[in-house]
Design a protein that fits this description.
By secondary structure, this protein is an alpha+beta fold. Helices cover about 60% and strands about 20% of the residues. It has helices at about 5-75, 75-95, 165-170, and strands at about 100, 115-120, 130-135, 135-140, 140-145, 145-155.
């Protein structure tokens, strides 16, 4: 065998090895892309399920509001106990699905969580939430609906006097 032929065979083997390495790398990339595709589609499925559940729960909050309103109006103790039991089951269901009420009373309003309906005279600290007109709810830390609240306007708070205006008044 001549030197040219052996050199040619070595080159052919090297190019074959390079092609095999190229195919292996291509297969590895394709496998990684497929695994990423599977993970991405799973996340999308979870997101779609979560959004669908959130939309249903948001519609169910109307029923919860009606229960709360009804409980406040009932005078019959037996009827109230029955409604309370149903209400607690609905609340338990909502919590199992990931919905939870926003705790508002006594806190400062958060513009992302609270909708301030009005200010009311109160002895409570100025700017704190004193009444909740409608409960707000979170669903897996996403806002389903903000709380509608009334905040305190403290009238006993002294307004700082402007010393310059007092001097002008005294000089006149």
């Amino acid at each position: 065998m001549s030197e040219k032929q052996s050199s040619k065979k070595v080159k052919e083997k090297d190019t074959e090895k390079d092609k095999i390495q190229e195919y292996e790398n291509g297969l590895k990339r394709l496998q990684a892309e497929f695994e990423n595709y599977i993970k991405r589609t799973e996340k999308e499925k979870e997101s779609i399920a979560k959004n669908s559940t959130g939309a249903i729960i948001k519609k169910l909050l109307f029923v919860v509001d009606e229960f709360e309103h009804g409980l406040a109006q009932i005078n019959d103790k037996e009827a109230m106990n029955g409604l309370k039991m149903i209400y607690s089951n609905v609340i338990k269901f909502l919590e199992e699905q990931g919905a939870k009420p926003i705790n508002s009373l006594g806190n400062k309003p958060d513009p992302f969580m609270h909708e301030v309906i009005k200010h009311e005279e109160s002895t409570a600290e100025d700017g704190t939430i004193i009444k909740e007109i409608q409960k707000g709810y979170l669903f897996h830390d996403l806002l389903l609906r903000p709380s509608k609240v009334i905040i305190a306007k403290n009238s006993t708070k002294e307004v700082p006097k402007n010393s310059q205006s007092e001097e002008v008044i005294q000089n006149e």
